[in-house]
Design brief:
Layout lengths: L12 H10 L11 H14 L3 H19 L5 H12 L8 E3 L14 E3 L2 E6 L2 E7 L4 H4 L7 E5 L2 E2 H11 L3 H16 L1 E2 L3 E7 L5 E7 L1 E2 L3 E3 L7 E3 L1 E7 L7 E7 L7 H9 L6 E5 L10 H6 L8 E6 L4 E5 L19 E5 L6 H11 L4 E4 L9 E5 L5 E5 L2 E3 L15 E2 L4 H6 L3 H13 L2
Parallel strand pairs: 14-15, 15-18, 18-19, 19-23
Antiparallel strand pairs: 1-21, 2-7, 2-10, 3-4, 5-6, 5-8, 8-9, 11-12, 13-14, 16-17, 16-22, 20-21
Length: 440
């Protein structure tokens, strides 16, 4: 069974995980093991953007692997061969996930709920990162920096071993693991989820959390699973005692449902001394939204990059926003802009941040982004395994490829356990200090 594309232009690994978790892929045990290898190659050869690589070295590797399997290949042999096959281009969105590794999901909830807990991989563990004020996670005493060791019957350490072995490297495996845990934490309003944590003192606690209402709204796009999206705008002072403020806009996905909220936040930031756009944890979404968002801070129609498919090139350019919702003429924001990123800033977030950085319109703070800047699709192979495969390439305005490299921040301010536990946001503080230094 073939799983649907995740957004034609911006497939996102963290958003893929819940889709894999709920995919109903029947496995035909009567099919020969080689059917999975052949299905994998058929999907790649049909959609991969670089025909020269397909017809050259990759096909040679494919033929060699296929011949080496012979007629007595086991399922394990085929899985190893598929992993060798998708390793040829060395790109993040080529991943083979064992069918028994993807958590299965129950019947979709009528109304979604949340534990109010966001997680991150850090120092080889999965750590509580953001905890919503007043959420069930906060009321249960979970604090930033606590280590997540189990969710329901889902043991973190054993799944980590499986996913690290499935991914191109340990970092991608931990990225997948955090996404699986996030999917497990999501569920129906009023339903309970068990979360086992180890706190800063080393004490393990098992907590039963009843999911409460979500922040923002639930949206769908194409064949993506339902996704809770939200946007916020807050103000921080340029410096202590300074009446001027910096607008901080944060949103967690590039989806049309957020368009009105984003316009409101950015139009409402025109009077700020500086602007911070917080894309940490933002896995991407609809690449076309870059035109409108960048138009709030670029005054010309200029390209922020392009996607190259096998037979076409799609460029995404700024659309200057010169009229506010009331019909009043206004100029795009002209002050300093800081963009915050981390390892979970991916796909469209990377397209936007790399484009703004390449144009010199923004400075980037935080830690290196995911380097998962390629649109991808996914299929379930006859074996039951799920394979992600790339369908396009991306370059920023300077011709740089973010894929496999990530965006290197202008100012490194990585997530640290001691900062989390102290309640300090190093990336935001660095951005604020940079804006303050440049605003007389």
């Amino acid at each position: 069974m073939r799983l649907p594309h995740l957004c034609r232009l911006a497939a996102v690994l963290p958003l893929l995980v819940p889709a894999l978790a709920s995919a109903q892929g029947a496995v035909n045990a009567s099919l020969p093991p080689l059917a999975s290898f052949d299905s994998a190659w058929a999907a790649i050869s049909r959609t991969y953007w670089d025909q020269a690589l397909l017809d050259g070295r990759w096909k040679i590797v494919r033929d060699s692997l296929r011949e080496g399997l012979g007629g007595e290949a086991t399922a394990a042999d085929v899985r190893r061969a598929v992993r060798a096959l998708i390793a040829v281009p060395k790109q993040s969105h080529f991943v083979l996930i064992p069918g028994d590794a993807a958590p299965t999901a129950g019947r979709a909830a009528r109304e979604p709920g949340t534990a109010g807990l966001e997680v991150r991989p850090l120092d080889g563990a999965i750590i509580a990162w953001r905890i919503a004020a007043g959420s069930v996670a906060a009321l249960a005493g979970i604090k930033p920096g606590d280590r997540i060791v189990q969710v329901d019957s889902f043991p973190v350490d054993s799944m980590q071993r499986v996913l690290r072995a499935s991914a191109p490297d340990a970092g991608v495996g931990d990225h997948l693991l955090a996404s699986f845990i996030a999917a497990r934490l999501s569920g129906g309003l009023g339903q309970e989820v068990r979360v086992d944590i180890v706190d800063a003192s080393g004490r393990r606690r098992a907590l039963l959390l009843e999911r409460s209402g979500i922040e923002g709204q639930v949206t769908r796009f194409g064949n993506l699973p339902p996704f809770a999206v939200h946007v916020s705008m807050s103000r921080v002072p340029v410096a202590p005692g300074d009446p001027r403020t910096i607008a901080v806009v944060r949103f967690n996905g590039w989806f049309p449902a957020l368009s009105a909220g984003l316009d409101s936040a950015f139009f409402g930031s025109r009077d700020a001394a500086g602007l911070v756009i917080d894309l940490r944890g933002n896995p991407g979404g609809v690449v076309g939204m870059i035109a409108g968002v960048s138009g709030h801070m670029l005054d010309t129609v200029i390209s922020l990059g392009e996607l190259r498919q096998r037979t076409s090139v799609i460029r995404f350019s700024a659309n200057p926003r010169r009229v506010d919702p009331s019909g009043t003429l206004t100029a795009p924001f002209a002050g300093p802009i800081a963009i915050l990123i981390d390892e979970f800033s991916a796909s469209t977030s990377e397209f936007f941040a790399s484009g703004m950085q390449a144009l010199g319109r923004a400075k980037v703070f935080g830690s290196r982004s995911a380097g998962m800047a390629l649109p991808a699709a996914a299929i379930r192979l006859p074996s039951g395994d799920v394979m992600m495969h790339v369908i396009a390439d991306h370059q920023d305005p300077k011709g740089r490829r973010v894929e496999g490299v990530g965006i290197v921040p202008d100012v490194l301010a990585p997530l640290r356990l001691e900062d989390l536990r102290a309640g300090r946001d190093a990336a935001l503080e660095a951005a604020r200090e940079w804006i303050a230094a440049g605003t007389p």
